[in-house]
Structure formats: structure tokens, C-alpha cells
Amino acid sequence: MRLEALLQSKFGYPAFRPGQKEIIESVLAGRNTVAMLPTGTGKSLCYQLPGYMIEGQVIIISPLLSLMQDQAEQLMMNGEKKVIAFNSFLSRSEKRKALINLNQYKFIFISPEMLYYESVLSQLQKLCIALFVVDEAHCISQWGYDFRPDYLKLGEVRQKIGNPVTLALTATATREVKADIKKSLGILDCSEFIYSVDRPNIALTVEKADNFRVKTERLVELAETLEGPGIIYFSSKKMAEQTADLLREKGAKRVMAYHGGMDHESRILVQQQFIHGQLDLICATSAFGMGINKDNIRYVIHFHMPLQIESYLQEIGRAGRDGKQSIAIMLYAPGDEQLPLQIAENELPDKSQIDWITGWMEENPNAIMNISAYEEQIKQRSGLTDIQWRIFYDFFERKNKSGLGYKRILQEMNGYFEDRIKFKRNSIEEVYRWIHKENCRRENILSYFDEEKNTSVQFCCDICGLQFENFIRNTKSDNQDKTFYDWKNHLEYLLIPGE
Ligand SMILES: [Zn+2]
């Protein structure tokens, strides 16, 4: 009963959600634990609650700044003062101060790149760490859809801070990714708690349109008729913004865009307005959603094809957290697979860029040991983007430390990036096949995660058959009739390819 009492007094919840208690008990028994809980089922409680029951600090490694910030704020709003989010949002002096006083905090959120600094690591070594949490642990696997090179050294970090009890949390991981998580963190002997990725209250549908224009028309129609609140996901910042503009011009007042290109304040504002019911619809990129606690989202539409089944599940999983019926709609027009392919390819440095760097290193052998000092120069002349640079730099530094010559490293890099692109291409093809399959969509997704569909779902998917009327708003908006004529001239504008 002690756990339930604490759950009530500290967090105000009368009961645990499925999975939470088992995971918490495992952690409290001092066992390393891997837990896979579907999006929206309260993963953070699995380290927050034990934090109040054990002596020492809880370290939480989190890959996304916004997610980390949200979770830290959530704890603070819950009355916890000993929380810090140690990341690049802190100024230099704030960081210094925080580092000296690290032992006064209970919950310490750290972004993985901070672990590069010896000063941070040596402070961590002085702490009495009760629990080491790796959030979004699938980022550790090179075959995970969201691989972060920074995550690779978490196993080493864990060792250096004395192998504390470790909890790896993720919402979606295939069998290979799970194996990678355990191996990288050095917790092969862990307890595993794996729950179904299925969310039966989310109906799954795919709608195929003949072309982009028809698809856009359908999107507008859906936005005007579906029962909200809702999220529409785009792969392009520009499209997210333009669609929000278009819907507003058509009279939908409570629509905003959200993407990573917006400044921090605007993003927080939009997020807060949406959470508090002042907005009905967000036109977003994948930057939106992690750590957003809004339980009454009724629909999620994908205007662009996601890059993999895992991120698709994460994104649609933001609907229906209150358990009520919700719907996920994927819109598809022929050729839609081109955009994700392009995005996947642009993320990594290509062969010509690496060849250029090889030549540059040949001419500047002294620069090799201090490559970060040449970041701007290399980026400018080889055309690497920030993300490409980070990936390049991380790979190079790791290998350089192990004493491989630069030519060998760059050769290996080329091979590795080729494999990575192949992997990404396969993931996109997987989504493409899913869209075009003709049997139950839920069954197909579950089998991707080695699961079987063994419950009957009332509103399962478009293939099993479902009535669309169930998802339509009762009161139609005034400007309903104008849907199809006053916005045609915007289409050309929308057709400009996004970034
Ligand atoms: Zn079905």
C-alpha cells in the first residue's frame, strides 16, 4: 500500500496505470530495468516516484531539450524544488553554479552532450546516485529510428559513475533495438517490462488521394469537420506554417503552426495555448509533441509520410490519452515517399563532402587533433549542415581517440553512412508497404513489433471498416460552404517545396 499512498499524496493519482507499479518495484528492488510503455502512459512516474523512496540522486538523461524542460517543469509544478535541467539553456555562470551545487538536487536532468565535459563527469562521480535513467532509450541503438551518437557513450558514463541502478525507458523498440539498449548500457542481466504498443482507442486510417492538390483539399475538409482538438503533422516547416495560415484565412481562428524553426518563447506560447484549450489545431513538424500532456486530443493527421513506423506510432499516440475514441489519418498521394527519402539522405554527410574533408585533412595535418576549432571553416567550405557536422564530428572524434589514422576513419565513415542510409530507406519502404497493404492496419503494425492482435477493436481501421461520422464535429462552422472556392489560388503557394 505504501506505493499507492505515495502516489496519492505526492502526485494526486488514485491508482497506477498498467505497468507503472511493476517497473517501480523492480527499480526499488535495485534491479536494472528496461521498460517499454506505449506513448502517453506515464513513463516519467517510473523514476519520479522511486526518487522519493530512495536516498541519493536521480540522474535522467534525456535527448531533447524541450522534453527535458517540460519534465523538469512538471516536477517543479508538483512542488519539487530540488530539480535542475542541466543543458545548453543555462548560461555559463549558471552552469558553473549548478555544477558546484549538484549534490543539493534530487532530480538532475542532463542532456547527453553535457557528458562530454570532464568537469560534469567528475562532479557526477562525487554524487551518491540512486538511479540512472535513460529516457527515450531507443536513441542508443544505431538501428533505432532516432539514433543519437551522443547516446553511444552512456554505457561508458554509467561505468565511470559506479554502475548505478539503471532504468531504460522507451515507447517503441523492436527486438533488435531492445538488445542494443541492454548491450550498450551493460545491463544484460536486467528485468524487462514490455507492454503492447497498441492503443485500441485510436482508429487507424489511410486515405489515398490522386495528387497533391486533392490531398490538400481533403486536409482542409478534415480540419473543418473533425471533432478536435487535433494535430496535423508535416515534414516541412514551411508547409506547416502555410497550412496554418490557409486555415486561418478560411476562418478557423484557433489554429497555429509549431516547428523547430520558431523561437523558444513562441513555441512555449503555442504549446501552452493548445494545452489549455485556447487552440483547436496545431500544424506541426515532429518537433511538436514530446512531453506534451494533453489528454483530449481527438485526431492526428499525417500530411506527409513519416520516416518510420516507430515515429508514426509515437506521433499518433498523442491522441486519446483520456482513453476516449480518437482517430489517426494518414494522407497519401503518389510520390509522397520522395520527401522522406530526401530528408533521410540529407541528414548525413555525403561521399563528396567526406572526400572534400579527406583532401582538406591531407593539406592540414596539424588540424586533425583539434578539429572542432575548424568547425566553421569546414562547414562553410564543404557545405555540411549543423546536423551533418555533429554527426561527422562525433564519429571522427570517437575513432580519432582510438588512434586510427584519419584516412581509415573517413573510409569507415563512408561505409557507415551508406549503411545508415540503406537502413533509413528500408524504414521508409516499410511505411510505404504499410500504406499499401490490404489487410488490417493494426495487425500489420503489431506484427512489426512481434506482437499479435488478440483483442477485438470496435473502430479498428479503414480496412476492417469504420464509420467516419463518429469522428465528425456536431456543430458545423459558419464558413463550411466556402471550403472549396476561395482558396484555390493558395495552392500554387503551397506547392513550393518545403525545406
Ligand atoms: Zn483493422
From TrEMBL:
<keyword id="KW-0347">Helicase</keyword>
<dbReference type="InterPro" id="IPR001650">
    <property type="entry name" value="Helicase_C-like"/>
</dbReference>
<dbReference type="GO" id="GO:0005737">
    <property type="term" value="C:cytoplasm"/>
</dbReference>
<dbReference type="InterPro" id="IPR002464">
    <property type="entry name" value="DNA/RNA_helicase_DEAH_CS"/>
</dbReference>
<dbReference type="InterPro" id="IPR032284">
    <property type="entry name" value="RecQ_Zn-bd"/>
</dbReference>
<dbReference type="GO" id="GO:0009378">
    <property type="term" value="F:four-way junction helicase activity"/>
</dbReference>
<dbReference type="GO" id="GO:0030894">
    <property type="term" value="C:replisome"/>
</dbReference>
<dbReference type="GO" id="GO:0043590">
    <property type="term" value="C:bacterial nucleoid"/>
</dbReference>
<dbReference type="GO" id="GO:0005524">
    <property type="term" value="F:ATP binding"/>
</dbReference>
<dbReference type="InterPro" id="IPR011545">
    <property type="entry name" value="DEAD/DEAH_box_helicase_dom"/>
</dbReference>
<dbReference type="Pfam" id="PF16124">
    <property type="entry name" value="RecQ_Zn_bind"/>
</dbReference>
<dbReference type="GO" id="GO:0006310">
    <property type="term" value="P:DNA recombination"/>
</dbReference>
<dbReference type="InterPro" id="IPR027417">
    <property type="entry name" value="P-loop_NTPase"/>
</dbReference>
<keyword id="KW-0238">DNA-binding</keyword>
<dbReference type="Pfam" id="PF00270">
    <property type="entry name" value="DEAD"/>
</dbReference>
<dbReference type="InterPro" id="IPR014001">
    <property type="entry name" value="Helicase_ATP-bd"/>
</dbReference>
<dbReference type="Pfam" id="PF00271">
    <property type="entry name" value="Helicase_C"/>
</dbReference>
<dbReference type="GO" id="GO:0016787">
    <property type="term" value="F:hydrolase activity"/>
</dbReference>
<keyword id="KW-0067">ATP-binding</keyword>
<dbReference type="GO" id="GO:0003677">
    <property type="term" value="F:DNA binding"/>
</dbReference>
<dbReference type="InterPro" id="IPR004589">
    <property type="entry name" value="DNA_helicase_ATP-dep_RecQ"/>
</dbReference>
<protein>
    <recommendedName>
        <fullName>ATP-dependent DNA helicase RecQ</fullName>
    </recommendedName>
</protein>
<keyword id="KW-0378">Hydrolase</keyword>
<dbReference type="GO" id="GO:0006281">
    <property type="term" value="P:DNA repair"/>
</dbReference>
<dbReference type="GO" id="GO:0043138">
    <property type="term" value="F:3'-5' DNA helicase activity"/>
</dbReference>
<keyword id="KW-0547">Nucleotide-binding</keyword>
